[in-house]
Amino acid sequence: MASLIENLITGLNEEYVIYEKLLEVSMEKTSSIISNNLDRLKATTDKEQELVDAITSLEVKRNNTMANIASVLNKKAVDLKISDVVTFLDGQPEFQDPLKEINEKLAKIARKLKEVNAHNQNLIQESLAMIEYNINLLQNLNRAPETAEYSKDMFRGQGGYGNGAGAPGDMPGRFDAKQ
Q: Which long-range contacts (CB under 8 A, 24 or more apart) does 115-120 make?
């Protein structure tokens, strides 16, 4: 059992190191979004994906270790949490303390990472909204105005209001009551 607990602590410490790197990359991503640097954003996203892949690999190992611990404790692996293992190790501070410490550190960094990612998501949504606004603005600027065009000869019967006939009743400023 001691070797399983040592493997668990080692694996969790490895995960923590990668989560720290992931937090740094996520903060870099924030500045990339703010500065609108798409090349840097792509590079940070690629780094982020590599770190997520590494974390996924470590999680598989951790889940296997937890499954082995669960079988030793006659528990279901899906129900067993690290806090349960910490409680089980009561009276064994050489294992309980480091496991409890790394579990708390992981919880803290996971909360911080969640905050940074939520902030990045909001920044991206605001950026997309601004892009959509700019596109709509440019589209509207390229359209012809939809207002009537008036000219100074409009009332003189030269291609406008007077129908080109120059009839005696067609004087500027007169309202045609027959219509």
A: 116/23, 116/26, 116/27, 116/30, 117/26, 119/30, 120/26, 120/29, 120/30, 120/33
Whole-number average pLDDT of the chain: 85
- Report all structural domains of the chain as residue ranges with CATH numbers, in order of start: 2-142 (1.20.58)
Task: Report which listed range, 78-92, 130-144, 156-170, is most confident.
Answer: 78-92
- The pLDDT, as a whole number, for residue 14 is 97
User: DSSP secondary structure string, the chain?
Assistant: -HHHHHHHHHHHHHHHHHHHHHHHHHHHHHHHHHHT-HHHHHHHHHHHHHHHHHHHHHHHHHHHHHHHHHHHHT--TTT--HHHHHHHTTT-HHHHHHHHHHHHHHHHHHHHHHHHHHHHHHHHHHHHHHHHHHHHHHHHHHSPP-SPP--TTTTTTSSSTTTTT--TT--TT---TT-
